[in-house]
Predict the structure.
Amino acid sequence: MAMRTVILLAAFAALGSAFKILARDGTSAAVITSCKKQGDCALTFDDGPYKYHKNVSDTVTAAGGKCTFFLNGNNYACIYKAPYPDYINYSYSAGHQLASHTWSHQDMTDLSQAQLDSEIDQMDTAFQKILGVTPTCLRPPYGNYNQTVLEAIGRRNKTAVIWDVDSGDSTGSTVAQSKKAYDDGIANSDGTMLALNHEVYPNTVTEVLPYAIQRLQDWGFTLVTVAECLGIEPYSSVGEPAKPDFTWHC
Ligand SMILES: *[C@@H]1O[C@H](CO)[C@@H](O)[C@H](O)[C@H]1NC(C)=O
Ligand SMILES: *[C@@H]1O[C@H](CO)[C@@H](O)[C@H](O)[C@H]1NC(C)=O
Ligand SMILES: *[C@@H]1O[C@H](CO)[C@@H](O)[C@H](O)[C@H]1NC(C)=O
Ligand SMILES: *[C@@H]1O[C@H](CO)[C@@H](O)[C@H](O)[C@H]1NC(C)=O
Ligand SMILES: [Zn+2]
């Protein structure tokens, strides 16, 4: 086959999968609740950056895996405040995926159009400044969305990422209950998992995560990023970070 044909075919294949993932009715974002590749588990950690961010990154790295952080700009901590830009660069450099959880963790179905735009764009600005990238994945806070929300996300070519296993750490589950959520998730799994955790709870980081990793790997799961398990790019643009200046505040 001529090289030009090969390239053309590859381009069409890429376009085909892009259209499946991205907008179908103009601007509405696709909503993803599970991984696509058999054997893939995407562990996700919301609501950071916070104190335990590097510990989560290291724990998953030490297990030979990758994970995904859905970050806020101004929630448990201000993303621009030391040491958080360094923490984020640390997990990014370790190959984990950094994605948007909106600027200030509002329920997006409560927001005006202008507020929706601002919640997404302020977060993208922070990613531009701190890492020089634009994330393709966004998790709406509380997993709440409606058509207006999906159109705002879709206009920015992002995919809305939900989950299929919830550790329950943000809704009052004990360590034992969170561990059981993983046991049940594995028992009921169709061979993929997209699991919700929060990097802001010490129990999640020191108790639940090591247990989950052990169980998942014993079962034969590979720990990958959300982008990897969906077969999409984690970032729609990758450039250089900016230098900290007076605009780095919350
Ligand atoms: C994470 O923190 C816990 C508790 O402080 C510690 O036992 C563990 O070694 C840390 N893990 C890593 C990879 O740093
Ligand atoms: C980000 O981390 C990498 C790898 O550790 C390092 O080389 C680079 O200087 C860091 N960038 C910033 C802006 O801190
Ligand atoms: C989504 O929720 C917002 C806020 O309640 C509302 O203004 C908007 O009309 C809703 N959109 C749809 C399509 O229901
Ligand atoms: C979204 O993707 C379309 C098609 O690839 C492109 O034309 C458009 O500029 C992108 N928009 C944004 C905001 O990246
Ligand atoms: Zn959240």
Notes: The CA atoms of residues 5 and 11 lie 10 Å apart.
